[in-house]
Amino acid sequence: MTSDRAVTRFAPSPTGYLHLGHVRSALAGWRAARDAGGRFLLRLEDIDQTRCRDEYAAAILDDLAWLGINWDGPVRRQSEHFDDYQRALDRLEAMTVLYPCFCTRREIRDEIARAGDAPHAQSDRLYPGTCRGLGSRERAEKQRSGIDYALRLDLARALALTGPLDWVEEEEDGPHRKLADPGPLGDVVLARKDVPTSYHLAVTVDDAIQGVTLVTRGEDLAPATHVHRVLQALLGLPTPRYRHHEMLTDATGRRLSKRDRALTIRSMLESGISPKEIFDLALGIAPLNQPDPFR
Ligand SMILES: [Zn+2]
Q1: Helix (H) or strand (E) holding 57
Q2: Can you tell me the distance from the alpha carbon of 157 to that of 140, in angstroms, rounded to the nearest whole number?
Q3: Residue 105 C-alpha to ligand 1 middle, in angstroms?
Q4: Which among 3, 22, 110, 144 has the fewest CB atoms less than 10 Å away?
């Protein structure tokens, strides 16, 4: 099921070369837009300037062009729009749904262990709220001292303002209304001392600024939708429809990752594989054999 005149986007991070998993994501957005006579946008998620490189950004554009996956309008680079994120952050600050967190990763891990939580994957990532209750004087003192901190979303306060939320998820059998349940993500980080945004804030702001009406992305990002929906409500932004696709796996069922160097679009280009063959592999129409890491 396709929305009318869908505006979709592909939003890779230039931290490496495009691989087949990226092509699956790009095709999902590109085909949804082209089928509907809509627009397909390209965004480079390069807020982490320690990991992103211009060389990879240029390679992403080259590889997409070579594949014939054309995009509409200018490329949006997140690193050029920190003022947009700062404005959103200021708005959240004024709503008092942010608080500074001074914990190191290690302190968060230790605190979880002390609380006696089972060390399963979810609690491993869930922030225990250590800094939520700091007094304003203590906060100001710590911030003045110059130590690093993150700005976290006070989820309970946020939800008290927004009330229950939902969105439309497009699944194979049609659209379904999903209830937002951001609890399992906890008080996510929305910015850092020196960077006025994080993945969650930048994505939410960008999708609104770019007028994206249908977000297509891998199902690994499906859990983030719950918190993105909360941010949309707080910031008064429209809610796109969402379509999360299955991740590409190799013949052994293992998810592809950047480690699979042999599967970069670059290396396929060099070995003479055609775009059509790459699409078939990316969509799972042709089987993927175990990549040879030494190729
Ligand atoms: Zn903390």
Answers
A1: helix 54-67
A2: 21
A3: 9
A4: 144
DSSP state of 14: S
- Gap from CA of 59 to ligand 1 centroid (Å): 38
Main-chain dihedrals φ then ψ at residue 221, nearest 5 degrees? -100, 0
* Residues pairing with 179 in the sheet: 166
Which residues lie near ion ligand 1 (Cβ < 5 Å)?
Answer: 101, 103, 130-131
Centre of ligand 1 to C-alpha 288, Å, is 44
| Whole-number Å distance between alpha carbons of 231 and 295 | 44
How remote is the CA of residue 142 from the centroid of ligand 1, in Å?
A: 12
Dist. CA 199 → ligand 1 center (Å): 19
pTM, two decimal places: 0.90
pLDDT tens digits along 86-143: 999 999 999 999 999 999 888 888 877 777 655 444 444 689 899 999 999 999 999 8
| Residue carrying structure tokens 């999708």 | 207
Looking at residue 113, its pLDDT comes to 78
Bridge partners for 206 per DSSP: none
Enter the tokens of residue 123.
Answer: 């609690």
Structure tokens at 287: 């089987």
Give the integer Cα–Cα distance in Å for 185 and 208: 22
Grouping H, G, I as helix, E, B as strand and the rest as coil, residue 149 is coil
Question: Ligand 1 centre from 146 Cα, in Å?
Answer: 15
